[in-house]
Amino acid sequence: MAPLSLCINTQTPLIQFLRPLEGDRLDPASRDPTDLTTLREGVDYRFSPGGVTRMVYPLIRRLLREGVLSEAHWVALNPHAPPVVRLGATTLHNVAIDVERMAGYGKVKEAIWSRIHEIDATERHDDLFWTEAFAEYAYYNRTTAELIQTLDREHDFDVFYVHDFQQMPVGHMLGSLKPKIFRWHIPFDVATIPEQWRAMLTTYLDGYDVIVVSAERYADALQALHPRGKVLRLYPYLDPADYGQPSRATVNATSARLGLGPRDVVALVVGRMDPIKGQDLAIEAVATLAEEHPRLKLVLVGNGSFSGSSTGLGLSKSGAWRDRLESLVRERHLEGRVLFTGHLPQDDLDCLYERCRFTVLPSVKEGFGLVAVESWLHGRPTIVTDRAGIAELIRDGVNGLLFDPERPGDLAEKMRSLLEDRSGKLRARLARNGRTASRHCSLETAARAEEQMLAEVTEA
């Protein structure tokens, strides 16, 4: 296969800019790339947290290095960034729309998210595609598609790779016969899709040659809704090389800085502040166990998503959810037993993985759950909701522990089994077998599958 020119499209950008840049770098008329090597990470910019960007960028780097790709262009929503940013052999193109249109887009995007995740059973958003706000959602996707079309005339892409539900209309709007791949990252259950949405969804999905999902049950459900589409299950993945093993001294220093004592027993939850992430379930479990395990501390790592950040859509849901969790901590008299760290850089996160006794993925619904893989890479056992896509890789009691988020006391019981594993044999077995399971979600495994998919769609 000859090297390919690839165009990637995501909502969340790879790079978030932390402060306004000087000069004309933010001039929308300027197409001169901003060279990221001239800026300072952590001061001028940061890499976006989250599974999509932790997956896509390592894959692109690898495929470029191996000659599968000749170039990569990445189009994303990034209203506070220069129009074009150069990052090695990858060029980032940032989309901006005005504040009023952004608000409408955000309403529709959140409504889809809420319905798919069944967050508010009283509001089904059945008429969503006939609202005024939907016009702004369509406008944003049309703006994105027009930019991609402009870039295609210049670079003559071989394939378009569109990621997640926010960008779903893009493939239909491109009006190109070139191969298009769509990756759906969140859960997919036909029962959560209102009847009034289904015709529109299938119209959008018809715009793609392949639709990729993260678990077998999502593939089955999507195929049932869209039987004429080609649906492929590819597990999300991480590059193990991105995860370091800090020294004991570094772990101890970081733990102390974050408020952890040397005798504390740490349960770790990593995830953005969002009701679907189920941090409240973990707090309730700690409240159940607090008296019998007085050294137990729960550490909650994470802030808002790109949608909730000041550099993104500016939605307020993450702040409201953290307020609710802090109130729950007070109600359960767990002050000092539950730590909120906010967003942490990878070095600090590596230290917490090394410091914890186990991790918990308590989501009430989860597209996949790469934090469980991160736990395995650090040799830590994990307790995972059975509502996560990754649950199909977990054999309860063999490479992880599964719990039902709707069953009262189930999470506390699973935590108790690890806290009272005095010999450490259970934790060791779960961690050892978990590392073996993590190979299903490694960049090495994914790169082969992604390369095969690219070859098939471009040679068809």
Describe the secondary-structure layout:
Blueprint: E1 4-10, E2 15-17, E3 34-35, E4 45-47, H1 51-65, E5 69-77, E6 84-87, E7 90-95, H2 99-117, H3 132-155, E8 159-163, H4 169-174, E9 180-183, H5 195-205, E10 210-213, H6 216-225, E11 231-233, H7 248-257, E12 265-270, H8 279-289, E13 296-301, H9 317-331, E14 338-342, H10 346-355, E15 358-361, H11 370-377, E16 382-385, E17 401-403, H12 410-419, H13 425-437, H14 443-459
Parallel strand pairs: 1-5, 1-8, 3-6, 5-7, 8-9, 9-10, 10-11, 12-13, 12-15, 13-14, 15-16, 16-17
Antiparallel strand pairs: 2-4, 6-7
Helix pairs in contact: 1-14, 2-3, 7-10, 8-12, 11-13
Structure notes:
The chain is of the alpha/beta class. The protein folds into 2 domains: about 5-240 and about 445-460, 3-Layer(aba) Sandwich (Rossmann fold), CATH 3.40.50.2000; about 240-440, Rossmann fold (3-Layer(aba) Sandwich). The protein has helices at about 50-65, 100-115, 130-155, 170-175, 195-205, 215-225, 250-255, 280-290, 315-330, 345-355, 370-375, 410-420, 425-435, 445-460, and strands spanning about 5-10, 15, 35, 45, 70-75, 85, 90-95, 160-165, 180-185, 210-215, 230-235, 265-270, 295-300, 340, 360, 380-385, 400-405. The strands form 3 sheets. Strands 3-6-7-5-1-8-9-10-11 form a 9-stranded mixed beta sheet, sandwiched between helices. The longest helix is centred in the first third of the chain and has 24 residues, at about 130-155. The radius of gyration is 22 Å and the shape is globular. The mean pLDDT is about 95.
Key structural traits:
alpha/beta, 14 helices, Rossmann fold, 460 residues, six-stranded parallel beta sheet
